[in-house]
Amino acid sequence: MPCHRRAVLRPPRCLLTSLIALLALPPVAQAAEAELVEARVRELLSREAAGPGRQVDVAVHPASAQLPPCADPQPFLPHPKLRVPGRVAVGVRCEGAGSRYLQATVTISADYPVTRRALAAGEVLSAEMLELRHGDLGRLPRNAVLATEQAIGSELSRALPMGSPLPGNALRSVPLVARGARVRVEARAGSFVASRDGTALDNGGLGEEIRIRSEGGEILRARVSGRNLLSVDF
After folding, report:
1. Predicted TM-score of the model (pTM)
2. Calpha distance 141→190 (Å, rounded)
3. What is the pLDDT of residues 31-51, one digit of tens each?
4. I want to staple 224 with a disulfide (CB 3.0 to 4.6 A). Which of 75, 158, 201, 204 is the partner?
5. Angle, CA 179 vertex, CA 227 and CA 230 arms, to 5°
6. Exposed (0-12), middle (13-18) or buried (19+): which is 128, by Cβ within 10 Å?
7. What is the CATH number of domain 175-233?
């Protein structure tokens, strides 16, 4: 085919502009910009992973290809509900240049509860049955309970060996209120406490919200705080 009849493929103007800007940027400036992007990604992930007694380490992996300049990088999590420990994807919005994506590995070391002894199915967890172990949270099962208070009062649906982390799907709430039971509801506002009696319309375990019919016939919603005891905070 003659040269003058060949189709000429032209790259998009925005890509040409980015490539020209990248080539024009001095190597020192390119390195400084990359450091800024990594610093902001580390800051975002460290904030997401922070918690009492936690030691957080963030390693940002270099991009597999050379990227165009990124002015005022603003990192974000594409999946905000994703559990942070382990390898995660992070988006970075660049002023006037769209978004890019980087990979990072987050390591969190902290205390987490394990069984102090072998436990049988049907046992209700108490503080004496558990102890704390320090380690990498990323090595735990994804549904592991990370706080002792989240497990106490729950019933085991299956046996667990000594030293086992607590799988969330092996815990079930123990009903402290039965439907039809007479209950007391406490309403708190600072140091002021008022109480009233009623009838439970639902079963409920510790911390669960259920419906109550007051003696006057009003339907209320309150949170289970003890045996046949519920609370409402104002």
Report:
1. 0.63
2. 39
3. 787 889 999 999 999 999 998
4. 204
5. 40
6. exposed
7. 2.30.30.760
